[in-house]
Write a structure and sequence with these properties.
This protein is of the alpha+beta class. The chain has helices spanning about 1-10, 20-30, 50-55, 60-65, 75-85, 85-105, 120-130, 145-155, 310-315, 340-360, and strands at about 10-20, 35-40, 45-50, 65-75, 110-115, 155-165, 170-175, 190-195, 200-210, 210, 220, 225, 230-235, 240-245, 250-265, 265-285, 285-290, 300-305, 320-335, 360-370, 375-390, 390-395.
Length: about 400
Amino acid sequence: MVKFLKYMRGYLRIKVWGFSPERFMNLCSNREILLWDIEKDGDTYRMSLSLKSFYRLKSIVKKTGTRVAILERYGLPFLLPKLWKRKVFLAGLVFTLFFWMVSSLFIWDIRLVGNYQITQDSFDTFLKEQDIKIGMRKASLDIEKLEKEIRRVFTQVTWTSAKLSGTKLEINIKENDAPISVELPVETSGADLVCQYDGVIVSMIVRSGVPKVKIGDMVKQGDVLVEGSVPVYNEDTTIREYQYVQADADILLEHAMTVRESLPFDYIEKVYTGRTKTKYYLRVGEKKLELPQNSPFLVYDSLIKESCPLVFEKLGIPLSFGSYTYREYQNVECEYTLSQAETILSEKINTFLETLEEKGVQIIEKNVKIDTSDNMWVIDAGLLVRELVGSSVTIEPEADTVSETGEDINE
């Protein structure tokens, strides 16, 4: 606080030398002239004193036979004349302060916190219906009414709180997180497990159903692996009826798989000419202010850069500056070499294999061959893999009928 008062009143850093500088400082103390930051440099003393006190030194300097020189000037009284000469800077400073004061009267940011079931788009629509938007005056916002309307429109909201923090409106809500009861469908029929590929059974663990194959069997696509119709026998070992269950098993099948990827001989490459043009714009909220401009080049792409000054970001004011940089390029026809084609196609195959491994498929063998066909590079990968199989197929109970004597009619 003392430093601030000294700065507002202005103070000087002076140099004192001559016949008796020590007597000079004693007389200043007797006349209640405050000196601080006193430093001795040989026969010279450096010290600070207020601007008002400096004008009282004339008689003291004359009496002590010393000399005084001003080294530096500090404080507002020395700053204002400099600012007055720089009228453009002063006008900008006044405009900035005025802009901050006016901007603080409006809402420049609206944030919703705690929403999981309510989407941001639906809430934005609700705010528009309530005539609440970015750029509105804070005085025209009724927070209590807003909270009531949120609870009325969104029935899943059990608690809400809205508050103004500077130029930001923050809305916190809590939704009803009680578990939603879902009626699960009742299984009235069973299901078989059917094989999707041709191959050899490597391992098999059956949890429910009747297994129709065993380890080491060759199976084809469409073969039933595990039946979901479980026979119930009479005492005389005849079938009385069938009970239907959902067949469940872990069946590991070893089978062959072929993967093919292709790549055209020719491709189009962008070659930049080095010519560029830049267009600037100003974004205020959702509006973008920019000068109209025709297409700068026949063929081009563009880079967009946008930034918000730190001052506006801290105040929550949605004001940002950006630019479009248009870069001209030409489309040049090129051909892939054999090494380029091998690299690109190998990457495609490896990506596919990584996808298989993520799904739990074990790759036992891999045979890759690259060739040409119909103006294209073609890569064929022959794979030997092991993966879990078994597609669930619903059983039609009418297909399995048992006679009154306990004999299966279908037999």
